[in-house]
């Protein structure tokens, strides 16, 4: 179980647990829709897992109507549980489907996804883990095709991937007419390279705005008569997750 300020994630039946980078995606992605001022914003969470991203979006934007799609049986039932126990249940609809087969009556203003990205890595004997981590069930070309089919012409797609896979996806997206306009790179500390990238895509071609988020920083603390240094969450990370993490 992972408790946030306004909701709780039960995760005993899902392959993908709550992780820091997914929380950053949910807190960072533009889900307010400055171009949408007079109506509900329609948002799609592809591969919702526990329902984490859908719940974060619902907390951030009270005008968001969210469809959360999940193919795995156990994850689907867990998302139903988490959404149903939250204060946002009336604005989130959880559906079980392959996203390639999903045919809604609307197109979405925002699409969020934390997709599987392993390709040639050793596979797990657990089918749910493979589905969550390996691209076999949702290859990048099919993901891009799905986004093009389901997103509004003025919409945005936000996706979380490692740096190498970010570049691969960006090339596929570009060929389909989707262009990155913002990239947030995540690194553990100032001495480490980026390990994840949050990218925002739209149909407007432009040079992406690049940002870096360092999760931990060094903090000097007094230990009796001696000084020592330890890692603590950075001020930028605290500011981003302050509305969600109980420890902030």
List the helices and strands and how they pair.
Blueprint lengths: L1 E2 L4 E2 L10 H9 L12 E6 L5 H9 L3 E7 L2 H12 L7 E5 L11 E6 L13 H7 L6 H11 E11 L1 H13 L3 E9 L8 E7 L6 E6 L1 E8 L2 E8 L1 H7 L7
Parallel strand pairs: 3-4, 3-6, 4-5, 6-7, 8-10
Antiparallel strand pairs: 1-2, 7-9, 8-9, 11-12
Helix pairs in contact: 1-2
Verbal overview:
Its EC number is 2.1.1.223. It is a single chain. The protein is built from 7 helices and 12 strands. It is globular, with a radius of gyration of 18 Å. The protein has helices spanning 20-28, 52-60, 73-84, 127-133, 140-150, 163-175, 235-241, and strands spanning 2-3, 8-9, 41-46, 64-70, 92-96, 108-113, 151-161, 179-187, 196-202, 209-214, 216-223, 226-233. The strands form 3 sheets. The chain has an 8-stranded mixed sheet with strand order 5-4-3-6-7-9-8-10. Strands 1-2 form a two-stranded antiparallel ribbon. A two-stranded antiparallel ribbon has the order 11-12. Helix content is 27%, strand content 31%. A hairpin with a 2-residue loop joins strand 11 (216-223) and strand 12. The chain is α/β, with parallel strands linked by helices and 248 residues long. The protein has one domain: Rossmann fold (3-Layer(aba) Sandwich). Mean pLDDT is 90; it is low at 126-135.
